[in-house]
Design goal:
There is one protein chain. By secondary structure, the chain is of the alpha+beta class. It has two domains: about 5-100, Pseudouridine synthase I, catalytic domain, N-terminal subdomain (Alpha-Beta Plaits, 2-Layer Sandwich); about 110-260, Alpha-Beta Plaits (2-Layer Sandwich). The protein is about 15% helix and about 25% strand. It has helices spanning about 30-40, 80-85, 145-150, 200-215, 220-225, 255-260, and strands at about 5-15, 50, 60-70, 90-100, 110-120, 135, 155-160, 175-185, 185-195, 245-250. Strands 1, 2, 3, 4, 5, 6, 7, 8, 9 and 10 form a ten-stranded mixed beta sheet that branches. Helix 3 crosses helix 4 and helix 3 (about 145-150) packs parallel to helix 5. The longest helix is centred in the C-terminal third of the chain and has 13 residues, at about 200-215. The protein is globular. The chain starts with 5 loop residues before the first strand and ends in a 43-residue tail after the last helix.
């Protein structure tokens, strides 16, 4: 009897702090391993391999990650969300599932990925925001300067300056399609949409933008590092918990729009209490302020 294989696409959410990223790890829990084990229990007829549109790093969240796998059992696509959610941990949820053609690929069929980074720029800590944002509380961020720097990334460029060491890519060219950076009270929210992202790219960019917003880095220096691919000067990355894979786009929508398009709620703080204006620094002086910017490669502070 011929085995009937059906390719299933899933729209997946996860709270990243519980996992060492999407990709399966030898000694640490990952989203991929957790999902594959549950799929295998429900469909034990063939080996399971779940393929994601983007391989998020340790601690990074996803509002609408897209995954595909091949199933041989009798479960129809529409029933996979309920079946999986009944067995997955609370930190992972399937929002939708759909049958797709055998040649469709969660990663290679995608036309874009969009990430959102949330900065909390209020004086007082807020536990309701802490898991989803980076708290910068000593200086009022200059969102105008940050937005001006971010806008330079739009287009097809070599982004080697914003690629974490250890990448297996043969080149660093990709196309940034859209960017935005806006202040909403004490929240500064940045979004970057691209055809693809380099290893650690968004967190390195945000680390540079925060240095600009706090007056520790000139926009002109950011431009030089970007244009001249000065990777050795870009070592400090924003922490992962402020970053969320917002959505993945395809030539034709796979899921109903409410399931995937903009599923990370925006926080709405009715009151605002930002820090004072930008500090003055002596030439060559740098102060990290707030939470320390974690170094990806054991680097000194941004200068």
């Amino acid at each position: 009897m011929t085995e009937r294989i059906q390719r299933i696409a899933l729209c997946l959410q996860y709270e990243g702090s519980a996992f060492h990223g999407w990709q399966r790890q030898a000694r640490h829990p990952s989203v991929q391993q957790t999902l594959e084990e549950v799929i295998a229990a429900l469909d034990p007829h063939r080996p399971v391999r779940a393929v994601a549109a983007g391989r998020t790093d340790t601690g990074v969240h996803a509002a609408a990650q897209v995954v595909h796998f091949d199933a041989a059992g009798p479960i129809p696509a529409r029933r996979w969300p309920r079946a999986l959610n009944g067995r997955l941990p609370p930190s992972i949820r399937v929002r939708a599932a759909a049958p797709v053609p055998a040649e469709w690929h969660a990663c290679f069929s995608a036309t874009y990925r969009r990430y959102r980074y949330t900065l909390y720029n209020g004086r007082a800590p807020n536990l309701c925001l802490a898991p989803w944002s980076w708290h910068r509380y000593r200086t009022r961020l200059d969102e105008t300067a940050m937005a001006a720097a971010l806008a330079q990334l739009v287009g097809t460029h070599d982004f080697d300056a914003f690629q974490r060491a250890g990448s297996s890519r043969s080149h660093a060219r990709t196309t940034v399609q859209e960017v935005s950076l806006e202040r909403h009270g004490d929240l500064v929210v940045a979004e970057i949409q691209a055809s693809g992202f380099l290893y650690g790219m968004v967190r390195l960019v945000i680390g540079q933008l925060v240095a600009i917003g706090e007056g520790r880095l000139a926009v002109e220096t950011f431009t030089r590092r970007f244009r001249h691919r000065a990777r050795a000067e870009v070592k400090d990355a924003a922490p992962p918990h402020g970053l969320c894979l917002l959505r993945v786009g395809y030539p034709r929508a796979v899921f109903p729009e409410p399931a995937w398009y903009d599923c990370q709620p925006r926080f709405d703080l009715r009151s605002s209490d930002p820090p004072e204006g930008l500090p003055e620094f002596a030439p060559g002086e740098a102060s990290m302020g707030g939470e320390a910017i974690p170094a990806m490669t054991g680097s000194p502070p941004i200068r």
